[in-house]
Description:
Helix content of chain A: under 10%
Number of helices of chain B: 0
Order of helices and strands of chain A: EEEEEEEEEE
Structural class of chain A: mainly beta
Strand content of chain A: over 45%
Helix content of chain B: under 10%
Oligomer: heterodimer
Radius of gyration of chain A: 14 Å
Order of helices and strands of chain B: EEEEEEEEEEE
Radius of gyration of chain B: 14 Å
Strand content of chain B: over 45%
Structural class of chain B: mainly beta
Largest sheet of chain A: 6 strands, mixed
Number of strands of chain B: 11
Distance between the termini of chain B: 37 Å
Largest interface: A-B, 22 and 27 residues
Distance between the termini of chain A: 37 Å
Amino acid sequence: GENVGLHLPTLSVQEGDNSIINCAYSxxxxxxxxxxxxxxxxxPQFIIDIRSNMDKRQGQRVTVLLNKTVKxxxxxxxxxxxxxxxxxxxxxxxxxxxxxxFGSGTQLTVLP
Amino acid sequence: xAGVIQSPRHEVTEMGQEVTLRxxxxxxxxxxxxxxxxxxxxxxxxxxxxxxxxxxxxGMPEDRFSAKMPNASFxxxxxxxxxxxxxxxxxxxxxxxxxGTDTQYFGPxxxxxxx
Lengths: 112, 115
């Protein structure tokens, strides 16, 4: 039968350019958000997080922006490098629940 | 400081056999999560524990799946009997909720193939 899998959004960028990965979340009660990076054959790796009382947080080469009005989260990677090639997941946590709800992921490919 | 440790990293077994996956939490963490990842369904939460107590097992697909935390630092996920559709990568993650944040740290995963 036909193999229907998840259709991951893809983003291809040139090495050295900036990357922007977007995520729409569903629960307006979510108050904590995380970006994970998953390289092939590895587990998801924590990149950066943000609480809902903030709209921007910066790390090393990465910035997360949160727009609660439209329930949108983005991850900006500055000066993208080949090692940044991976699938990036956003995750949201709402209220007292311990679970994280993960997005389907975006495949980032860095071109030489 | 060691991260989450999972074993085995790869498991190939025949349909009907029992499979046991193991996970060691990061020291000091008190929440443990088991996930399954496939191309078809992405990353799915199976069950999570807080302070050794199962809190939500609604993601466990069938009675063939069971998970335990015999102590505060170790967990097992058992599939008995295994079926080909159980083939996936199984991740465990641990966390220590602090101040309303709950960052989960993932292990390297166990790639399970059921023939």
